[in-house]
């Protein structure tokens, strides 16, 4: 992980401005503006000039996978972003799913712009599931949004895993929103807290981008489908045709192949969409703070989903699921159990 602004600037100095990253960048594809491209953002940091491009980055890090010079954009750029008070408040709420539930209740009665935007995405919510078997050996990490917005998925996964393991549900945040928005120190503290909580346990995450982030922070975590596949757990057969969205960070660490493998083992038919890891438009809390660009990215994603002619969308990441529900019926693989 990045240590100090100077080192992070050196990382960005590896950029040779070739532009190979432009066409994979959702904000560039939507705007065709250099300011909203990885290359433009990197240049702004190197020149030390202010740029609105730093605020409009979705932090999907697709540019990293495309970069022939190996620029670790995410690690470096998170040191130059600054979360304002509103974003910091949102991050504190996400750290505690119980507080997230209470906050959503408050937002449901508000007509502030932020509340209205949240209500466009979040249609229903429940208190987080509290569950613990005696001598639990497996921690199920739902992810902050899943705990509250997709509780039925958490229940499905818990009931399934309980057939084979003693389970405890751990409701919390992985720290990715903090890291992405420039609260790097806070993200490191969250990782330390999780390291303590995870000690001696097998940890299974229900949110693929959280899984990817926690792994990058050095934590030993399985993604749900990865765990099912690697442990060869028995699966039911399902006659369903789906298209699969690849959450961006999960793509970077190679998790999405397990989602497809689990679906194949269940007998599901997969119709691939074009460029499945193209941003969904949610981007963690991006949809709240950059509503216009988020809408345009979601429209582009919607075109890719619609072209498949398939109504059922598989998403193993919570925020993506919210954005994708604009285009069809969204399922986590655990929903099919
Ligand atoms: S970040 Fe990488 S791909 Fe993008 S312009 Fe720089 S060197 Fe080229
Ligand atoms: S992280 Fe995503 S949105 Fe940001 S510059 Fe890279 S590709 Fe573009």
Automatic annotation (TrEMBL):
InterPro entries: 4Fe4S_Fe-S-bd (IPR017896), 4Fe4S_Fe_S_CS (IPR017900), Cys_rich_dom (IPR004017), Helical_ferredxn (IPR009051). GO terms for molecular function: 4 iron, 4 sulfur cluster binding; metal ion binding; oxidoreductase activity. It holds the Pfam family CCG. It comes from the Archaea. Keywords: 4Fe-4S, Iron, Iron-sulfur, Metal-binding, Repeat. PROSITE patterns: 4FE4S_FER_1, 4FE4S_FER_2. Residues 6-35, 48-77 form the 4Fe-4S ferredoxin-type domain. Gene3D superfamilies: Alpha-helical ferredoxin. This is (Fe-S)-binding protein.
